[in-house]
Write a structure and sequence with these properties.
Blueprint (H helix, E strand, L loop, with lengths): L18 E3 L6 E2 L2 H4 L4 E2 L6 E9 L7 H4 L7 E4 L6 E12 L6 H18 L10 E2 L7 E4 L7 H5 L17 H18 L9 H16 L8 H18 L2 H31 L7 H13 L4 H8 L3 H12 L1
Antiparallel strand pairs: 1-2, 1-3, 3-7, 4-6, 5-6, 5-8
Helix pairs in contact: 3-5, 5-6, 5-7, 6-7, 10-11
Protein backbone atom coordinates (compact mmCIF):
# COMPACT_ATOMS: atom_id res chain seq x y z
CA UNK A 1 0.00 0.00 0.00
CA UNK A 2 1.52 3.30 -1.11
CA UNK A 3 0.42 5.84 1.52
CA UNK A 4 2.80 8.45 0.15
CA UNK A 5 0.47 9.14 -2.76
CA UNK A 6 -2.53 9.88 -0.49
CA UNK A 7 -3.81 13.47 -0.35
CA UNK A 8 -2.47 15.80 2.32
CA UNK A 9 -3.94 14.98 5.77
CA UNK A 10 -6.22 12.39 4.16
CA UNK A 11 -5.57 9.61 6.69
CA UNK A 12 -5.72 11.95 9.70
CA UNK A 13 -9.18 13.19 8.69
CA UNK A 14 -10.69 9.73 8.19
CA UNK A 15 -13.30 8.47 10.68
CA UNK A 16 -11.86 6.40 13.53
CA UNK A 17 -13.76 3.33 12.31
CA UNK A 18 -14.82 3.97 8.70
CA UNK A 19 -17.06 1.87 6.53
CA UNK A 20 -14.92 -0.03 4.02
CA UNK A 21 -14.88 -2.96 1.62
CA UNK A 22 -13.08 -4.64 -1.23
CA UNK A 23 -16.34 -5.81 -2.81
CA UNK A 24 -19.30 -3.45 -3.24
CA UNK A 25 -22.42 -4.79 -1.57
CA UNK A 26 -20.51 -6.20 1.40
CA UNK A 27 -19.69 -3.31 3.73
CA UNK A 28 -17.70 -3.59 6.97
CA UNK A 29 -16.78 -1.22 9.78
CA UNK A 30 -13.10 -1.51 10.62
CA UNK A 31 -10.46 0.46 12.56
CA UNK A 32 -8.64 2.99 10.43
CA UNK A 33 -5.36 0.96 10.03
CA UNK A 34 -7.36 -1.90 8.51
CA UNK A 35 -9.90 0.19 6.57
CA UNK A 36 -7.18 2.18 4.77
CA UNK A 37 -6.10 -1.02 2.99
CA UNK A 38 -9.53 -1.57 1.39
CA UNK A 39 -10.47 -0.54 -2.16
CA UNK A 40 -13.47 1.50 -0.99
CA UNK A 41 -13.58 3.63 2.14
CA UNK A 42 -15.74 6.18 3.97
CA UNK A 43 -13.95 9.53 3.94
CA UNK A 44 -16.55 11.83 5.55
CA UNK A 45 -16.91 11.65 9.32
CA UNK A 46 -20.34 10.50 10.58
CA UNK A 47 -22.69 13.50 10.29
CA UNK A 48 -19.84 15.75 9.10
CA UNK A 49 -19.37 16.74 5.46
CA UNK A 50 -15.82 17.69 4.53
CA UNK A 51 -15.90 16.32 0.96
CA UNK A 52 -18.34 16.43 -1.92
CA UNK A 53 -18.00 13.14 -3.82
CA UNK A 54 -19.44 12.46 -7.30
CA UNK A 55 -19.64 9.17 -9.15
CA UNK A 56 -19.20 9.54 -12.94
CA UNK A 57 -20.00 6.34 -14.83
CA UNK A 58 -18.71 7.03 -18.34
CA UNK A 59 -15.51 7.27 -20.36
CA UNK A 60 -13.59 10.48 -19.72
CA UNK A 61 -15.11 10.80 -16.25
CA UNK A 62 -11.86 12.16 -14.79
CA UNK A 63 -12.23 15.36 -16.81
CA UNK A 64 -16.01 15.77 -16.40
CA UNK A 65 -15.34 18.87 -14.24
CA UNK A 66 -13.25 20.45 -17.03
CA UNK A 67 -15.84 19.63 -19.71
CA UNK A 68 -18.54 21.26 -17.55
CA UNK A 69 -16.54 24.44 -16.82
CA UNK A 70 -16.45 23.67 -13.10
CA UNK A 71 -13.65 24.39 -10.61
CA UNK A 72 -10.69 22.05 -10.27
CA UNK A 73 -11.42 19.12 -7.91
CA UNK A 74 -9.26 18.07 -5.00
CA UNK A 75 -8.57 14.63 -6.48
CA UNK A 76 -9.98 11.95 -8.77
CA UNK A 77 -9.83 8.16 -8.67
CA UNK A 78 -10.31 6.34 -11.95
CA UNK A 79 -11.16 2.71 -12.67
CA UNK A 80 -8.51 1.70 -15.26
CA UNK A 81 -10.84 -0.94 -16.73
CA UNK A 82 -13.72 1.28 -17.83
CA UNK A 83 -12.67 4.90 -17.27
CA UNK A 84 -15.34 5.53 -14.61
CA UNK A 85 -14.21 7.76 -11.75
CA UNK A 86 -14.98 9.51 -8.50
CA UNK A 87 -14.47 13.28 -8.42
CA UNK A 88 -13.89 14.81 -4.98
CA UNK A 89 -14.06 18.44 -3.82
CA UNK A 90 -12.73 19.30 -0.36
CA UNK A 91 -14.53 21.97 1.66
CA UNK A 92 -12.65 24.64 3.55
CA UNK A 93 -15.16 24.56 6.41
CA UNK A 94 -16.71 21.13 7.09
CA UNK A 95 -20.24 21.30 8.47
CA UNK A 96 -22.48 19.16 10.63
CA UNK A 97 -25.47 17.43 9.03
CA UNK A 98 -27.32 16.36 12.19
CA UNK A 99 -28.06 19.63 14.00
CA UNK A 100 -31.59 21.04 13.80
CA UNK A 101 -30.16 24.46 14.62
CA UNK A 102 -28.16 24.55 11.37
CA UNK A 103 -30.72 23.40 8.81
CA UNK A 104 -30.32 26.38 6.48
CA UNK A 105 -26.56 25.82 5.87
CA UNK A 106 -27.35 22.15 5.17
CA UNK A 107 -30.06 23.20 2.72
CA UNK A 108 -27.61 25.58 1.00
CA UNK A 109 -24.94 22.88 0.78
CA UNK A 110 -27.50 20.39 -0.52
CA UNK A 111 -28.46 22.78 -3.33
CA UNK A 112 -24.79 23.21 -4.30
CA UNK A 113 -24.14 19.46 -4.21
CA UNK A 114 -27.26 18.75 -6.30
CA UNK A 115 -26.38 21.41 -8.88
CA UNK A 116 -22.80 20.11 -9.15
CA UNK A 117 -24.11 16.58 -9.71
CA UNK A 118 -26.37 17.84 -12.48
CA UNK A 119 -23.56 19.72 -14.24
CA UNK A 120 -21.20 16.75 -13.93
CA UNK A 121 -23.97 14.35 -15.05
CA UNK A 122 -23.07 12.32 -12.01
CA UNK A 123 -24.92 9.21 -10.88
CA UNK A 124 -27.76 10.29 -8.56
CA UNK A 125 -28.07 6.70 -7.44
CA UNK A 126 -24.69 6.95 -5.75
CA UNK A 127 -25.14 6.80 -1.97
CA UNK A 128 -22.02 8.87 -1.23
CA UNK A 129 -20.94 6.73 1.73
CA UNK A 130 -17.98 4.94 0.13
CA UNK A 131 -15.49 6.29 -2.36
CA UNK A 132 -12.62 4.78 -4.27
CA UNK A 133 -9.71 4.78 -1.84
CA UNK A 134 -7.00 7.10 -3.28
CA UNK A 135 -4.35 5.14 -1.34
CA UNK A 136 -5.23 1.83 -2.97
CA UNK A 137 -3.11 0.80 -6.01
CA UNK A 138 -6.15 -0.57 -7.85
CA UNK A 139 -7.22 2.97 -8.84
CA UNK A 140 -5.54 5.58 -11.01
CA UNK A 141 -5.35 8.44 -8.55
CA UNK A 142 -4.55 12.06 -9.42
CA UNK A 143 -4.50 15.05 -7.10
CA UNK A 144 -5.40 18.18 -9.07
CA UNK A 145 -5.14 20.83 -6.34
CA UNK A 146 -4.78 21.28 -2.60
CA UNK A 147 -7.30 24.13 -2.66
CA UNK A 148 -10.27 23.88 -0.30
CA UNK A 149 -13.46 25.58 -1.46
CA UNK A 150 -16.03 27.51 0.52
CA UNK A 151 -19.67 26.86 -0.33
CA UNK A 152 -19.98 30.37 -1.76
CA UNK A 153 -17.03 29.78 -4.10
CA UNK A 154 -18.63 26.63 -5.47
CA UNK A 155 -22.02 28.35 -5.75
CA UNK A 156 -20.48 31.01 -8.01
CA UNK A 157 -20.18 28.37 -10.75
CA UNK A 158 -23.76 27.16 -10.46
CA UNK A 159 -27.42 27.95 -10.96
CA UNK A 160 -29.07 26.78 -7.75
CA UNK A 161 -32.66 27.28 -8.90
CA UNK A 162 -34.64 24.06 -8.47
CA UNK A 163 -32.03 22.53 -6.16
CA UNK A 164 -31.88 20.43 -4.13
CA UNK A 165 -34.23 18.12 -6.00
CA UNK A 166 -37.03 16.95 -3.72
CA UNK A 167 -38.99 13.73 -3.42
CA UNK A 168 -37.80 10.12 -3.82
CA UNK A 169 -35.02 11.28 -6.18
CA UNK A 170 -33.41 13.44 -3.49
CA UNK A 171 -29.63 13.19 -3.74
CA UNK A 172 -26.88 13.43 -1.14
CA UNK A 173 -27.55 16.12 1.46
CA UNK A 174 -30.95 16.74 -0.13
CA UNK A 175 -32.10 13.58 1.62
CA UNK A 176 -31.05 15.03 4.99
CA UNK A 177 -33.06 18.18 4.30
CA UNK A 178 -36.10 16.22 3.15
CA UNK A 179 -35.97 14.04 6.26
CA UNK A 180 -35.54 17.00 8.61
CA UNK A 181 -38.41 18.94 7.02
CA UNK A 182 -40.79 15.98 6.97
CA UNK A 183 -40.00 14.59 10.40
CA UNK A 184 -39.85 17.85 12.34
CA UNK A 185 -43.26 19.01 11.06
CA UNK A 186 -44.72 15.63 11.99
CA UNK A 187 -43.04 15.76 15.40
CA UNK A 188 -44.53 19.14 16.42
CA UNK A 189 -47.99 17.57 16.79
CA UNK A 190 -47.13 13.89 17.26
CA UNK A 191 -45.25 14.45 20.50
CA UNK A 192 -48.49 15.44 22.28
CA UNK A 193 -49.68 11.84 22.08
CA UNK A 194 -46.65 10.68 24.09
CA UNK A 195 -46.73 13.17 26.95
CA UNK A 196 -46.87 11.36 30.26
CA UNK A 197 -44.58 9.91 32.92
CA UNK A 198 -41.27 8.75 31.46
CA UNK A 199 -42.48 9.26 27.90
CA UNK A 200 -39.11 10.05 26.28
CA UNK A 201 -38.08 6.43 25.64
CA UNK A 202 -41.26 5.68 23.69
CA UNK A 203 -40.98 9.01 21.91
CA UNK A 204 -37.41 8.27 20.77
CA UNK A 205 -38.54 4.92 19.36
CA UNK A 206 -41.46 6.52 17.54
CA UNK A 207 -39.27 9.18 15.93
CA UNK A 208 -36.72 6.61 14.80
CA UNK A 209 -39.46 4.47 13.23
CA UNK A 210 -40.87 7.48 11.41
CA UNK A 211 -37.45 8.58 10.11
CA UNK A 212 -36.79 5.02 8.95
CA UNK A 213 -40.10 4.92 7.07
CA UNK A 214 -39.46 8.21 5.27
CA UNK A 215 -35.87 7.23 4.47
CA UNK A 216 -37.08 4.00 2.85
CA UNK A 217 -38.97 6.07 0.26
CA UNK A 218 -35.76 7.44 -1.25
CA UNK A 219 -34.38 5.66 -4.29
CA UNK A 220 -31.04 5.63 -2.44
CA UNK A 221 -31.74 5.73 1.32
CA UNK A 222 -29.39 7.33 3.80
CA UNK A 223 -27.17 4.94 5.81
CA UNK A 224 -28.41 3.79 9.21
CA UNK A 225 -25.86 6.00 10.98
CA UNK A 226 -27.41 9.11 9.39
CA UNK A 227 -30.94 7.89 10.19
CA UNK A 228 -30.02 7.40 13.84
CA UNK A 229 -28.39 10.82 14.05
CA UNK A 230 -31.37 12.62 12.49
CA UNK A 231 -33.86 10.73 14.68
CA UNK A 232 -31.86 11.54 17.81
CA UNK A 233 -31.59 15.21 16.86
CA UNK A 234 -35.31 15.60 16.13
CA UNK A 235 -36.46 13.70 19.24
CA UNK A 236 -34.19 15.70 21.57
CA UNK A 237 -35.11 19.02 19.97
CA UNK A 238 -38.86 18.45 20.18
CA UNK A 239 -38.61 17.22 23.79
CA UNK A 240 -36.79 20.43 24.67
CA UNK A 241 -39.06 22.80 22.74
CA UNK A 242 -42.47 21.10 23.02
CA UNK A 243 -43.24 20.29 26.66
CA UNK A 244 -46.69 20.01 28.27
CA UNK A 245 -45.94 23.16 30.28
CA UNK A 246 -45.00 25.18 27.20
CA UNK A 247 -48.05 23.88 25.36
CA UNK A 248 -50.37 25.03 28.18
CA UNK A 249 -48.68 28.43 28.26
CA UNK A 250 -49.04 28.72 24.49
CA UNK A 251 -52.73 27.81 24.59
CA UNK A 252 -53.35 30.28 27.42
CA UNK A 253 -51.60 33.04 25.48
CA UNK A 254 -53.64 32.25 22.37
CA UNK A 255 -56.85 32.27 24.40
CA UNK A 256 -55.98 35.61 25.96
CA UNK A 257 -55.09 37.04 22.57
CA UNK A 258 -58.34 35.73 21.10
CA UNK A 259 -60.34 37.23 23.98
CA UNK A 260 -58.73 40.64 23.53
CA UNK A 261 -59.31 40.47 19.80
CA UNK A 262 -63.01 39.65 20.38
CA UNK A 263 -63.35 42.50 22.86
CA UNK A 264 -61.80 44.95 20.42
CA UNK A 265 -64.09 43.70 17.65
CA UNK A 266 -67.17 44.14 19.84
CA UNK A 267 -66.08 47.65 20.77
CA UNK A 268 -65.52 48.46 17.10
CA UNK A 269 -69.02 47.20 16.26
CA UNK A 270 -70.52 49.24 19.07
CA UNK A 271 -68.65 52.28 17.81
CA UNK A 272 -69.99 51.76 14.30
CA UNK A 273 -73.58 51.41 15.59
CA UNK A 274 -73.45 54.52 17.78
CA UNK A 275 -71.47 56.62 15.32
CA UNK A 276 -73.38 59.79 14.37
CA UNK A 277 -75.29 59.96 17.70
CA UNK A 278 -77.44 56.92 16.98
CA UNK A 279 -79.71 58.88 14.64
CA UNK A 280 -83.05 57.17 13.84
CA UNK A 281 -83.93 56.19 10.32
CA UNK A 282 -86.34 58.99 9.27
CA UNK A 283 -87.14 57.40 5.92
CA UNK A 284 -88.32 54.19 7.58
CA UNK A 285 -90.18 55.78 10.53
CA UNK A 286 -91.76 58.90 9.01
CA UNK A 287 -94.79 57.07 7.45
CA UNK A 288 -95.65 55.66 10.91
CA UNK A 289 -95.22 59.11 12.51
CA UNK A 290 -97.65 60.66 10.01
CA UNK A 291 -100.12 57.83 10.52
CA UNK A 292 -100.15 58.34 14.30
CA UNK A 293 -100.45 62.11 13.89
CA UNK A 294 -103.45 61.66 11.59
CA UNK A 295 -105.02 59.49 14.29
CA UNK A 296 -104.87 62.46 16.68
CA UNK A 297 -101.83 61.46 18.74
CA UNK A 298 -99.69 64.19 20.25
CA UNK A 299 -95.99 64.55 19.46
CA UNK A 300 -95.11 63.24 22.94
CA UNK A 301 -97.25 60.12 22.51
CA UNK A 302 -95.79 59.48 19.07
CA UNK A 303 -92.25 59.92 20.43
CA UNK A 304 -92.85 57.51 23.33
CA UNK A 305 -94.47 55.00 20.99
CA UNK A 306 -91.52 54.94 18.59
CA UNK A 307 -88.86 55.53 21.27
CA UNK A 308 -87.90 58.87 19.80
CA UNK A 309 -87.58 62.31 21.39
CA UNK A 310 -90.47 64.83 21.04
CA UNK A 311 -88.03 67.33 19.52
CA UNK A 312 -87.19 64.80 16.78
CA UNK A 313 -90.91 64.39 15.95
CA UNK A 314 -91.36 68.18 15.83
CA UNK A 315 -88.33 68.55 13.57
CA UNK A 316 -89.61 65.89 11.18
CA UNK A 317 -92.99 67.61 10.90
CA UNK A 318 -91.37 70.99 10.15
CA UNK A 319 -89.05 69.58 7.49
CA UNK A 320 -91.84 67.55 5.89
CA UNK A 321 -94.02 70.67 5.57
CA UNK A 322 -91.27 72.64 3.79
Amino acid sequence: MNFARCPLDFINLLPRKPYCTDVLGVTDIRPKPIAIKKKYIQINQPCITAYFIFDIDREGAVLAWHDSNLPTPYWTCKNPKNGHAHIVYRLKIPFCTSSMAHLEPIRYAAAIQSALAQRLKADRGYAGLLTKNPCHPHWQYHQWTEYEYTLDELANYLDLRGHPIKGPESFGLGRNCALFDNVRHWAYKAIREFWGPNYKHNWNDAVYSYVEAINAQFIVPLPISEVRAIAKSVSKWTCRKFTPERFRQSQAAKGKKGGLAGLKENKAKAGRISKGGGRPNKKALLPKVLELKAAGCSNRVIAESLKLSPSTISLWFRTSEQ
